[in-house]
Design a protein that fits this description.
The structure holds 2 protein chains of 2 kinds. By secondary structure, chain A is an all-beta fold. Helices cover 0% and strands 55% of the residues of chain A. In chain A, the strands form 2 sheets. In chain A, strands 2, 4, 5, 6, 9, 10 and 11 form a 7-stranded mixed sheet that branches. In chain A, strands 1-3-8-7 form a 4-stranded antiparallel sheet, with no helix packed on it. The model of chain A has no long low-confidence stretch (mean pLDDT 94). By secondary structure, chain B is mainly β. Chain B has no helices and 11 strands. In chain B, the strands form 2 sheets. In chain B, strands 2, 4, 5, 9, 10 and 11 form a 6-stranded mixed sheet that branches. In chain B, strands 1-3-8-7-6 form a 5-stranded antiparallel sheet, with no helix packed on it. In chain B, a hairpin with a 4-residue loop joins strand 7 and strand 8. The radius of gyration of chain B is 13 Å and the shape is globular. The termini of chain B are far apart. The relative contact order of chain B is 0.34. The chains are: A mainly beta, B mainly beta. At the A-B interface, strand 9 and strand 10 of A face strand 4 and strand 5 of B.
Chain lengths: 115, 109
């Protein structure tokens, strides 16, 4: 099956700093990537839809200036959590849609802890 | 908006048992996904279906488009199958997924 990687797999940062998370589709082109966050024992919550070469579409209630998304190529999207606070601590997961299909594959997730 | 219902919410089985998890949705879709998440782990895509049946190893997924229903079956269940199984559907041009709440499966040795 298709592979999506995320980097880093976990990160600890101090409050006020910024953290960048990468999502890569390794063996396919992904016009669309999705960013989710997940709190313990809860469902995935869609944060934004990232389309290659255009601005991301954010879900209601998600601050676009805080969660910066860049989708510069068909295989890479990045999520930057700016001025992180402890309440931003969460599991961040991306998925990538195979170009021209409804197939989506998920990355392994990035666990962010803000101290 | 599509509503996705999964049942059961929790399922405990003995090793070797045949497992069935059900998923119903309210609005026509283009594709249905079955996903797996182990405790503390990432999401793994098991199947994507738009019609019929798919099989991979001990896992079988079926979908009935007319009845808006899908099932995930696990044959000869094993403790390593213990995980949350999530049904998700997509139907719009934005390709967004609507998720069910998941089924927590525990397989005891």
């Amino acid at each position: 099956g298709a592979v999506v990687s995320q980097h880093p797999s976990w990160v600890i940062c101090k409050s006020g700093t910024s953290v960048k998370i990468e999502c890569r589709s390794l063996d396919f082109q992904a016009t669309t990537m999705f960013w989710y966050r997940q709190f313990p024992k809860q469902s995935l919550m869609l944060m934004a839809t990232s389309n290659e070469g255009s601005k991301a579409t954010y879900e209601q209630g998600v601050e676009k200036d805080k969660f910066l998304i860049n989708h510069a190529s068909l295989t890479l999207s990045t999520l930057t959590v700016t001025s992180a606070h402890p309440e931003d601590s969460s599991f961040y997961i991306c998925s990538a849609r195979v170009q021209g299909t409804y197939e989506q594959y998920f990355g392994p997730g990035t666990r962010l802890t803000v101290t | 908006k599509n509503e996705v219902e999964q049942s059961p919410q929790n399922l405990t089985a003995q090793e070797g048992e045949f497992i069935t998890i059900n998923c119903s949705y309210s609005v026509g879709i283009s594709a249905l996904h079955w996903l797996q998440q182990h405790p503390g782990g990432g999401i793994v895509s098991l199947f994507m279906l738009s019609s019929g049946k798919k099989k991979h190893g001990r896992l079988i997924a079926t979908i009935n488009i007319q009845e808006k229903h899908s099932s995930l079956h696990i044959t000869a269940s094993h403790p390593r199958d213990s995980a949350v199984y999530i049904c998700a559907v997509t139907g719009g041009s934005n390709y967004k997924l609507t998720f069910g709440k998941g089924t927590l499966l525990t397989v005891n040795p």
